[in-house]
């Protein structure tokens, strides 16, 4: 028991000594010496350095200048992309040309095989790539471990030189500059069209072996003609056009005449008559729609209200709405009911009844009929009543067929 107690006390004492271990560091700077203590070597060094900074009489070093970041937007835009945008604004293309690397001196050329026994191994020198960048009349050389790194290095140098320079003004584009992008044949046709001259290309001669053909082509433009020779028809045609262009450019300049502007008389809008007699011979549905269009109002709205009667004797009720006016019409089918509703709306709006003849398929004629008369009566009651029917004249007498329509 006493032995265990003694061992635990010794362990505690050793742990306490280790935790309270103190380190002393001495700093010598010139003739001055400083000492400091700490619970670790690093803390003792920091305390000694802080003490030396506070008590040293030596002059302090000048502060370092901040590092200039050439690439203003690293990571997202590479120097080559930024330079391409700047070169497009300046109107000067950026052209990269790879350069041959500088030759590396061979230090082993003067040694023989006997002298290489005791020599150490020399690691190969890393290859360096060089790129020449031309922006307008300026040239920049870039280098790097890869060809892409060399391009970026040259672009960064160009950006540093061109970023603060003013953008040069572009000269006005002349007619010769625009014609430079056109082919000789196109220019010949263009000049001939302006002067109302005919153009004719003709192959005069074809000579030489099959693998080395030679063609002679003649071009005729009005009174001028020229010839061109080449190893293909296209090339001989192009050379002939180039020859005749020299003669066509000597012709006097044609002044441009502006054509007088033709003034077109504005057509007046057709005035649609919407009087009471308008469209009496038309279908009531079409007549009502045209009247609403002439008034520039909303078109009629039709709606099927009900369907009643036996299967073979159906009767349909159709409603039409125009603005705040509403009328209905009935008939043996939806078409007749819609027409009767439109006719009732026309009468309610103050127009005369339509005189269109009924469809033969919609009128059931009676056999042995000598003469028939169709009638349509509008009774302005509340609600209004539209009475339509047919009077049949027989040899034996008169029969009246009536179809009432209530709305």
From TrEMBL:
A Pfam family it matches: dsrm
Record InterPro entries: dsRBD_dom, STAU2_DSRM_2, STAU2_DSRM_3, STAU2_DSRM_4
Leader sequence segment: 1-30
Region (Disordered): 162-181
DRBM domain boundaries: 78-164, 183-250, 283-351
Molecular-function annotations in GO: double-stranded RNA binding; mRNA binding
Biological process per Gene Ontology, one example term: anterograde dendritic transport of messenger ribonucleoprotein complex
CDD domains hit by this protein: DSRM_STAU2_rpt2 (cd19882), DSRM_STAU2_rpt3 (cd19884), DSRM_STAU2_rpt4 (cd19886)
Gene Ontology cellular-component terms listed: cytoplasmic stress granule; dendrite cytoplasm; neuronal cell body; plasma membrane
Protein name in UniProt: Staufen double-stranded RNA binding protein 2
Highest taxon listed in the record's lineage: Eukaryota
Keywords linked to the UniProt accession: Repeat, RNA-binding, Signal
Comp. bias regions, Polar residues: 172-181
